[in-house]
Specification:
By secondary structure, the protein is of the alpha+beta class. It contains five helices and ten strands.
Length: 208
Amino acid sequence: LSVMSDHGFSTFSRAIHLNAWLMREGFLTLSDPSATGDEELFAHVDWSQTQAYALGLNEIYLNLAGREPNGIVSAGAESRALMAKIRRRLLALKDPQSGRAAVREVYSSSQISAGPPPAHAPDLVVGYEPGFRASWQTALGAVPATVIADNSEAWLADHCIDPQFVPGVFVSNRLPRLANPHLRDIPVTILRFFGLTPPQVMTGKDIF
């Protein structure tokens, strides 16, 4: 008997409006600076002056020339320098209410992908500290006026933060041989249990 979860859980008390932060730091520009709010899908973004934008819960994309319709950031040295600058500034982001750091780490897609990142993968993935998470407005491409706000929604816990704070759980009545099993080990273990050979694209190991 084996029981597993793919992730843990943590509190979500402070919401980060990531596009508002990108605007404050000069990475995102609005055609009308007063047009902040909950309007979705980057309604007032001036793409000719925008270097990066956030969409989804952990994702930051560069406005990359040749990939985005109105991209202005060149791939290569310029994009790498921009990602390093965004990472450095995000790691310095503090909650004005508590003084706590809001972000534990910022990863490039190449760091966390087992192979070449998919074509539509984000350029950066934000690993938040416990208690923080991207706002619902960030997920849908809105640019509110403030950077961090109280989470007043009923959704008071989440797992979309830095993965070190929300590890999955594996419980079994057989003693595993792997000290720290990974999610990718589960399907390999199941197939081998039934005497099947896992396909080569599966990179996991047999837990037992």
